[in-house]
Amino acid sequence: MLEGNGKAMSISRIGVIGAGQMGGGIAQVFAVHGFSVVLYDIDAQLAAKGYAVIEANLNRLVDKGRMNEEAAALTLTRLSLTADLEQLHDAELVIEAAPERLDLKKRIFAELDMLCSPHTILATNTSSLPVTELAAVTKRAHRVIGMHFMNPVPVMPLVEVIRGLATSDETFEIITALTQAIGKTAVPVRDFPGFVSNRVLMPMINEAIYAVYEGVATPEAVDQIMLLGMNHPMGPLKLADFIGLDTCLAIMETLHEGFGDSKYRPCPLLRSYVQAGWLGKKTGRGFYTYN
Ligand code: CAA
């Protein structure tokens, strides 16, 4: 349980919306750190798949001797699955990790605002959409904030914390303390398109795709250059496949529209891969193939 800045707000029960790779990772990290987590997905099959990934991740930690079996079993008891949003009514914090569509996220925030207690903090894991606009569909804009986790969530130590225009100091302090409580570092940023992480990362990925599109080099060569020459842990095209090419395109479109600057135009090759359904690792094909 986390007491927020000595104030009345305490957080022990967390709702997570979306059991994809981000939502599942977020649920895992909170459950590992002793929080009770309700993982919601509209698609029960997806929720079950998300749960299976968490179970496999915990088993891997046990195999490596980094967690004992009891702790892994206890972690799973803190985790419940639901396809009914109402089950989140008593969460003190809900973190939304639905697909990157503003209309969908607005609908979710409006519903959560109606069913959760007025004290519940509503956070979004959006990677580039305006937190202020999501807050505006609720009657609690001061309790809405961005918590942008990085993929893979269990491994990456950063949470980019985005303050909307109306986010209160208290909400910001509670979320910063909570981020520390799950062993991660909160870095505050203001609510501008792509925040900082994707404003810097995504144009690099887009440029790498342009290099392939223009025939400058193969995907393997582009990635090798960034791995060996810049010491990146993963080449930009492989990273794009891991993030999901649909997500990469959505972020580039948000940057392009938000800043109105042609330097953010998405590469046509990225667009056609998404049109083809080649979304990266999750569909088995992107710049590389996966089985
Ligand atoms: N879930 C849980 N743990 C995972 C994992 C996953 N999906 N993938 C890897 N790991 C763990 C491994 O088990 C391993 O743990 P140990 O150290 O305990 O053995 C550790 O991570 C390292 O894994 P590997 O040795 O298999 O591979 P690696 O050294 O290549 O590291 C990586 C993998 C951490 C993913 C590394 O390649 C990396 O840092 N890649 C870049 C990641 C990145 O840039 N993420 C940000 C993406 S942008 C984003 O998320 C925001 C957005 O809005 C788009």
Automatic annotation (TrEMBL):
Residues 14-191 form the 3-hydroxyacyl-CoA dehydrogenase NAD binding domain. Pathway: Lipid metabolism; butanoate metabolism. NAD(+) binds at G18, A19, G20, Q21, M22, G23, D41, E100, K105, S127, N151, K282. Pfam families: 3HCDH, 3HCDH_N. Keywords: NAD, Oxidoreductase. GO terms for biological process: fatty acid metabolic process. It comes from the Bacteria. The keyword ATP-binding does not apply. Residues 194-290 form the 3-hydroxyacyl-CoA dehydrogenase C-terminal domain. Gene3D superfamilies: N-(1-d-carboxylethyl)-l-norvaline Dehydrogenase, domain 2, NAD(P)-binding Rossmann-like Domain. Transmembrane segments: none annotated. GO terms for molecular function: NAD+ binding; oxidoreductase activity, acting on the CH-OH group of donors, NAD or NADP as acceptor. The keyword NAD applies. Belongs to the 3-hydroxyacyl-CoA dehydrogenase family. This is 3-hydroxybutyryl-CoA dehydrogenase. It comes from Paenibacillus radicis. The gene is hbd.
